[in-house]
Specification:
single chain, seven-stranded mixed beta sheet, binds S-adenosyl-L-homocysteine, binds 3,4-dihydroxybenzoic acid, 8 helices, 221 residues, alpha/beta, binds magnesium ion
Length: 221
């Protein structure tokens, strides 16, 4: 009942504010056809990420966890000419699907997918002095979130917005005794963010077609 209503309202919102978008549809279809799991952000969540990046005037965006590039397309669309997005992905197969989707979206010039364990790629970005990024979207393996937080801070400047997906986990996040490694890592993530004096942060609970979850938003001050 509840999920049914959340999905109906999400579809209604998407109908009004995302509309018909053949590029996004083909990205989802190609990802499904390639056997990727259906865990990309929803259309409405994608639009939210796009609006955040647009609002901040982001010129450099970092994404951790590409999958088929669905959220990547949304974020890259927020970039001005000459902007740049780097997305980190462990799976060479996922990256290949994402690159094809980005090419269909005519975003290949703006967006690059780097294959490897995100923590290694983040260290590489530090060495290259590739930062600072204006927006960082963390959405890879949840046990890695605490490390991705620390690395993201190192690639930030005052004004950077660090966003993390799936940080409420159907409310399981409040269980201090949880044995679920994803819940434990997300709790650790929130503790690190809350203890960090260089950011101002909050967590937004979300419902919709992807169920009950939430996004962490941290602005580097
Ligand atoms: N941001 C995507 C969804 C990402 S799903 C979207 O909304 O469209 C999570 C992705 O993280 C998967 O593709 C998975 O392969 C990748 N991943 C898992 N562990 C990783 C790691 N250690 N380093 C980089 N990527 C990882
Ligand atoms: C999973 C990962 C995600 O990033 C997400 O948004 C939903 C589910 C997962 O690994 O199951
Ligand atoms: Mg996610």
């Amino acid at each position: 009942m509840t999920q049914k209503k959340w999905t109906a309202v999400d579809d209604y919102i998407a109908g009004l504010f995302v509309g018909n978008d053949p590029v996004l549809d083909s990205a989802q279809e190609a990802s499904a056809a390639a056997g990727l799991p259906a865990i990309a952000v929803s259309p409405v969540q994608g639009k939210f990420l796009y609006l955040l990046a647009r609002f901040g005037g982001a010129r450099r965006i970092l994404e951790i966890g590409t999958l088929g590039g669905y959220s990547t397309i949304w974020l890259a669309r927020a970039l001005p000419n000459g902007g740049r997005l780097i997305s980190l992905e462990l799976s060479a197969h996922h990256a290949e699907v994402a690159r094809a989707n980005l090419a269909r979206a005519k975003l290949s010039d703006l967006a690059e997918v780097r294959v490897g364990a995100a923590l290694d790629s983040l260290r590489q970005l530090e060495e290259e002095r590739a930062g600072p990024f204006d927006v960082i979207f963390i959405d890879a393996d949840k046990p890695g979130y605490p490390d991705y937080w620390q690395a993201s801070l190192g690639l930030s400047r005052p004004g950077t917005l660090i966003i993390a997906d799936n940080v409420v986990r159907e409310g399981a996040v409040v269980d201090a005794k949880s044995k679920d490694e994803n819940v434990r890592a997300v709790r650790r993530y929130h503790e690190l963010v809350a203890a960090e004096t260089r950011v101002s942060a909050m967590v937004l609970q979300t419902v919709g077609s992807k169920g009950y979850d939430g996004l962490s938003l941290a602005l580097v001050t």
